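User: Some background: our group keeps a shared notebook of sequences we're curious about, and every so often someone picks one and asks for a predicted structure to add to the entry. Today it's my turn. The entry only has the sequence so far, pasted here. Could you supply the structure so I can complete it?
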Amino acid sequence: MPEGGVDQALVVLVDDVLFSGRTVRSALDALRDLGRPKAVQLAVLVDRGHRELPLRADFVGKNVPTARTEDVKVQLVEHDGVDSVTLSGGANMPPRGDANKASGEPNL
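Assistant: Of course. Here's the predicted structure to add to the notebook entry:
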């Protein structure tokens, strides 16, 4: 957090996967307790759709259309040494992305 707080600052919220929008809404609620930023922008690694709230990301790494029954898992080097985005769990659908693991290609 900047020394002067967030008053009149440009704040960029970063989320791994944008889905319903509830996590972003919670972050905005928490941000309100820290001051009044000049602007708030949203950056996401993956936008999978299915929004329940009227939110739009300003910066998107990858749009990945999904079924509601599918899960998106993002793994980053800082956590476990693996960089990947995996889509899995759709009804009657085999997992996508696993075919590229052996070739070293990115999953999505």
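Suggested note for the entry: Residues 1-65 form a domain with the Rossmann fold fold (CATH 3.40.50.2020). Confidence is low (pLDDT under 50) at residues 96-108.
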